[in-house]
Request: fold
Amino acid sequence: MEEKKVKLLAIQMSSVIGDLDANICKTEKLLDKCLLEKTADFVFLPEVWSCGWCCSVFEGCAENIKNAKSIEMLRKIAKKYSVNIIGGSFIEKKSDGTLANTCPVINRNGEIVCTYEKNHLFSYYGDNEGKFITKGKNPVIVTLDGTKIGLSICYDIRFPELYRAYRKADADILVNMAAWGAKKKIPWDSMTTSRAVENQTYFVALTQTGNLENGEKNLGHSMILNYQGDILDEINVIEGGIYANIDLNEMYEFRNKCSVLADIKESYEVLQK
Reply:
């Protein structure tokens, strides 16, 4: 069997709310530092790293993907270190003037190979993402270096149907890139672990850290989990990188021994009694 081992790096950071240039500079320095310490095949960034989680600043930080300063920096890093980048998300200004919460995926040559637009928008507890952002239409799996990665952003984690669809489409790695509030630690830890376990898939659970407006904070606690929910690496509230060398063949063997998907019923019609 052909060896299928890949090196993962996930960057946890604290964005400066509404300051695009400061966040690009900070992220570039973090990427340089972490990639000089250890090599990686795939690098992951958190949601809205270029502007921070604050819906009222989205319009001011929005960029056209064709000339986005944030994307140009990621393309430069990808080429410099010959690494694939799953670029968290930025606020994309579309040609029709609408905004999207968009994940850019960039290959080792610095080319944008695809994007994913957040499918589920968070509009609770005082946030109103749906007022500013247009909802994405489709899940996206991207294949890089023969590895299939299922993309999701923050609030998407509450919809297990999305991840089951990725698993049925043979995803090797699932990722959720978030800016997750500190008051919701139990949902973050339990749902990310559950998505890994129920789909027997490596999972990158990546969020921001640091302060938000009005005294609120991001959670931190980014993790890389294996297909049984074991934590391979994690970080709490500091900025930095987490790493994992993963063996995809080991995961495939586990799936063959415990073939959960083969037991899914065609219908789960509920009887009302």
Summary: The radius of gyration is 18 Å. The mean pLDDT is 97. The CA atoms of residues 10 and 44 lie 5 Å apart. The chain is about 25% helix and 25% strand.
